[in-house]
C-alpha cells in the first residue's frame, strides 16, 4: 500500500511540472531559438533576448547561431526537435530552411518566423517582424530631408547611389521598395539622379541583383563602393548613398573616406539596427541616420506570442498590429499568408540619438558614451 501511495505521489509531482501554467517539462527543451549569424551585432542581442524572455515566462530555451550557413542552421533546428522542442523561433538564412520547418509541422511543433519571413513554405502560421516597408521609407526620407530635395532643381540635381540587402532575405525587398516609394518621385522630377544601377523596384531583378549585398556581408559592400568610386562615380561627387543596414553603411563610409573628394564632406548615408558603432558615427557627424528596431521588444513579443498560442489564448501583443490590407503582403510566403504581427520602427538621427538609449537598448557602459 505504501508503495502505491509513493508511486502516485511521484506521478502527481511529475504532472505538476509538466502542466503547471501549460509550460515546461523538466529535462525537455521548450523553445529552440535559431539565429542566422553573429557578424551582425543585432542577431547576437536578439538570440540572448529571446532566451531570456522565454526563461522569464518559465520556458526552457536554447539559442544557436548558424554563421550564415543554412545547412548548419538546419542541423541546429533538427537538434532542437530531437530534444523535444514544442516551439521554434527561426531567423532564417534562406528558404532552404523549409525542409526542417516541414519536419516541425509533422511533429506539431509551433514555428515563429522571426524578423525574416520563411519563403516558399506553407508549414507554419506565424511571422513577427517590424513594418519593413516603413523601414525603407524612413531611410529614404532621412536622405530626402538631408539633401533638401524639395528645394532641388533639375538643372542642378542631387546625386545618389543605391545599395540593397541580401537577395536571400525577403526583408531586403521590402526595405528597398519602401525606400524607392519615397525616392522615385524625385527621380521622376529630375531633381535626383542615380549613379550606378537603378532598379526602380525590387521587381527589376537584374538591376536589383547588381546592388544587392549577398548575406549582408559588409566587406562586399565596401568593395562595390570602391568599384563605384573608380568607375560610375569617378567624375561626380555623390550627395547620398542609400544603405540598408548599419554594417553596410559603415563599410561604404570607410570606402568613401579613402577618396580625397569625401575627406571633408561625406555623402548622407542611411542605415538600420542602431548598432553602437553606428550611433558613435552618427554622433560624430559621419553616418546620417539609422532605423531603430527595438529588438528587445520584438523578442518579448515573439515569446508572448508563443506563450499565448500554447496556452490556447487569443493573441494580443501590446505594441503590435496584425498585418492587413496592403501590409498583409509582408506575410506572403509564396505558398500562403501567415499571421503577421508588426512592430513600428523609429528613425534615429543626431537630433534624437538618445532614443535607443532611453529604450534600454544598450549596456550602461555603452549608454554612458552616447549621452
Describe the structure.
This protein has 371 residues and is α/β, with parallel strands linked by helices. It folds into 2 domains: 26-124 and 294-344, Response regulator (Rossmann fold, 3-Layer(aba) Sandwich); 132-292, 3-Layer(aba) Sandwich (Rossmann fold), CATH 3.40.50.2300. The protein has 13 helices and 13 strands. A 7-stranded mixed sheet has the order 2-1-3-4-5-12-11, with helices on both faces. The protein has a 4-stranded parallel sheet with strand order 7-6-8-9, sandwiched between helices. The chain has a two-stranded antiparallel sheet with strand order 10-13. Helix 2 packs parallel to helix 11 (295-310), helix 3 runs parallel beside helix 4 and helix 5 packs parallel to helix 6 (170-189). The chain is globular and about 65 Å long. The model is unreliable at 1-23 (pLDDT under 50).
Distance between the termini: 70 Å
What is the helix tally?
13
The outline comes out as globular
Task: Determine the structural class based on helices, strands and strand pairing.
Answer: alpha/beta
**SS strand fraction:** 5-15%
Query: What's the oligomerization state?
Result: single chain
In short:
By secondary structure, the chain is α/β, with parallel strands linked by helices.
Which key features would you list for this structure?
371 residues; Rossmann fold; 2 domains; seven-stranded mixed β-sheet; 13 helices; disordered N terminus
Topology readout:
Layout: H1 2-19, E1 31-35, H2 41-56, E2 61-65, H3 70-82, E3 87-90, H4 98-106, E4 110-114, E5 126-130, H5 132-147, E6 158-162, H6 170-189, E7 192-194, H7 205-211, H8 218-230, E8 240-242, H9 246-257, E9 268-269, H10 276-283, E10 290-292, H11 295-310, E11 321-322, E12 339-343, E13 346-348, H12 355-358, H13 364-370
Parallel strand pairs: 1-2, 1-3, 3-4, 4-5, 5-12, 6-7, 6-8, 8-9
Antiparallel strand pairs: 10-13, 11-12
Helix pairs in contact: 2-11, 3-4, 5-6, 8-9
Amino acid at each position: 500500500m505504501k508503495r502505491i501511495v509513493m508511486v502516485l505521489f511521484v506521478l502527481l509531482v511529475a504532472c505538476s511540472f509538466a502542466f503547471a501554467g501549460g509550460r515546461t517539462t523538466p529535462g525537455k527543451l521548450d523553445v529552440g531559438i535559431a539565429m542566422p549569424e553573429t557578424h551582425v551585432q543585432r542577431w547576437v542581442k536578439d538570440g540572448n533576448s529571446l532566451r531570456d524572455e522565454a526563461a522569464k515566462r518559465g520556458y526552457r530555451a536554447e539559442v544557436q547561431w548558424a554563421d550564415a550557413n543554412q545547412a548548419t542552421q538546419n542541423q541546429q533546428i533538427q537538434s532542437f526537435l530531437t530534444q523535444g522542442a514544442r516551439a521554434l523561433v527561426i531567423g532564417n538564412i534562406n528558404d532552404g530552411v523549409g525542409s526542417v520547418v516541414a519536419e516541425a509541422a509533422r511533429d506539431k511543433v509551433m514555428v515563429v518566423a522571426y524578423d525574416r519571413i520563411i519563403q516558399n513554405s506553407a508549414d507554419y502560421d506565424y511571422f513577427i517582424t517590424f513594418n519593413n516597408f516603413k523601414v525603407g521609407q524612413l531611410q529614404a526620407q532621412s536622405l530626402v530631408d538631408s539633401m533638401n530635395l524639395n528645394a532641388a532643381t533639375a538643372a542642378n540635381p542631387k546625386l545618389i547611389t543605391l545599395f540593397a540587402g541580401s537577395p536571400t532575405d525577403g526583408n531586403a525587398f521590402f526595405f528597398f521598395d519602401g525606400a524607392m516609394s519615397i525616392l522615385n518621385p524625385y527621380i521622376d522630377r529630375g531633381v535626383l539622379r542615380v549613379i550606378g544601377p537603378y532598379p526602380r523596384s525590387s521587381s527589376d531583378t537584374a538591376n536589383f541583383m547588381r546592388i544587392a549585398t549577398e548575406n549582408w556581408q559588409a566587406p562586399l559592400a565596401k568593395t562595390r563602393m570602391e568599384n563605384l568610386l573608380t568607375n560610375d562615380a569617378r567624375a561626380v561627387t555623390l550627395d547620398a548613398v542609400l544603405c540598408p543596414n548599419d554594417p553596410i553603411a559603415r563599410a561604404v563610409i570607410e570606402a568613401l573616406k579613402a577618396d580625397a573628394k569625401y575627406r571633408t564632406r561625406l555623402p548622407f548615408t542611411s542605415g538600420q539596427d542602431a548598432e553602437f558603432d553606428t550611433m558613435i558615427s552618427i554622433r560624430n557627424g559621419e553616418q546620417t541616420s539609422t532605423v531603430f528596431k527595438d529588438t528587445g521588444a520584438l523578442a518579448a513579443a515573439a515569446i508572448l506570442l508563443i506563450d499565448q498560442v500554447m496556452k490556447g489564448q487569443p493573441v494580443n501583443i501590446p505594441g503590435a498590429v496584425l498585418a492587413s490590407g496592403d501590409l498583409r503582403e509582408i506575410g506572403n510566403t509564396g505558398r500562403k499568408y501567415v499571421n503577421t504581427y508588426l512592430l513600428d520602427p523609429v528613425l534615429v538621427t543626431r537630433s534624437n540619438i538618445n532614443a535607443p538609449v532611453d529604450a534600454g537598448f544598450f549596456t550602461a557602459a555603452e549608454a554612458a558614451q552616447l549621452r
